[in-house]
Automatic annotation (TrEMBL):
It holds the Pfam family PAS_5. This is PAS domain-containing protein. InterPro entries: DUF1457.
Amino acid sequence: MLATDTSATDLPELEEGIALSHRSQAFLAYWNDVRGASKIPAADDVRPSDFISLLPYVRYLRWDGAGSLVFKVWGTALADWMNADLTGRNVFDLLPESERAAEQVRLKNLHSLPCGFVQQRRVTDISGMTRLFEFLTLPVAAGSDGQLRMIGPGSFVDAVPGERVELADDPKTVIHSFRYLDLGFGVPA
């Protein structure tokens, strides 16, 4: 079911200045197909078997209460790149404390409009090189457990020139850029 033609005219219009990686484009096309006439896809309609070629790059998250957004899936390519499987980890534990409140607002906005977002974060890969990592994050309706979800791919875009750091046991990421993605219902001001 994974759409291979990402030039389709029924994809949400990207704002000027947003250039998605090919993985993000392909996943956005899949997400758009799955949602059909709905604002966002139902949790039961999102089936990993439909996007098997992208699964190694996918993050699937679920709200498990206030301040707890847990990775339910952290793709194997992501785990290999970062030398860490974040499945079961709370997103907010991985962010600098100074960014947590703003990130919670951003993530909650995904379901309120709905909208998506494209974010680049500076992360340190297993070689110690600091690189830009692109996240496309899209809303998914609550499952039978009543918990809202989010999904999207992540991949390294390029190296940040001249930056090399020693690896920490539990490295934090630092935001580089952020843009909401209009899925047809507007974006937060």
